[in-house]
C-alpha cells in the first residue's frame, strides 16, 4: 500500500517557506556511506606526507654529511699532493692513509645517500597512490551528492506542484492523494 501525504505549511511560516522539520520529512539528509573510508584516506594522506618530510630530512642530512666528507677528502688529497711535491715521505704516507680512510667513508655515505633517496622515492610513490585513492573517493562523494541534490529538487518540485494543485482546486482530488492497495 502506497500513501502520499502532503502537509500544509505551518501557520506561523511565511508563504512558500518550508520548515526544517518539513524538509526532513520530505527527504532524509545526505549521507555518504563511504565517509569513514574517506576519513581514513585523509588520515593516511597526512601520514604519507609526514613520511615524505622525514625521508627528505634524512636525505638532506646524509647529503650534508656526504658533502663534509667530500670536502675533507679533497683537503687530504690536496695536502698529499703538496707533501709529495715537498719530498716528505712520512707525511705523504700519513696524508695518503687519511685520504684512503676518507674514501671508504665517502663510499659509505654515498651508499647511505642512495638508500635515503630510494626511501624518499618510495614515500613519494606511496603518497601519490594514497592521494589518488582519496581523490577517487571524493569524486564519488561529489557524484553521490549531485544525485541526492537532483533527487531532492525533483521531490521539492513535485511537492510544489501538489501544493499548487491543491490551491487551484481545493475540493478536487490530486495525484498525491491517491491510495494504491
Structure description:
The protein is mainly alpha-helical. The chain has one domain (34-165): Helix Hairpins (Orthogonal Bundle). 77% of the residues lie in helices and 2% in strands. α2 (35-86) packs antiparallel against α3 (89-168). The longest helix has 80 residues, at 89-168. The chain is rod-shaped and about 120 Å long.
Largest sheet: 2 strands, antiparallel
Unreliable residue stretches: 1-25
Give the N-terminus to C-terminus distance in angstroms. 5 Å
Radius of gyration: 37 Å
Write down the secondary-structure element order.
EHHHE
CATH architecture grouping = Orthogonal Bundle
Average residue pLDDT? 81
Query: What shape does the CA trace take?
Result: rod-shaped
How many E-type strands? Answer: 2
Name of the CATH class: Mainly Alpha
- Discrete helix count: 3
Structural class: mainly alpha
Q: Percent of residues in helical segments? A: over 70%
Main sheet: strand order: 1-2
Please report which band the strand proportion falls in: under 5%, 5-15%, 15-25%, 25-35%, 35-45% or over 45%: under 5%
Count of all domains: 1
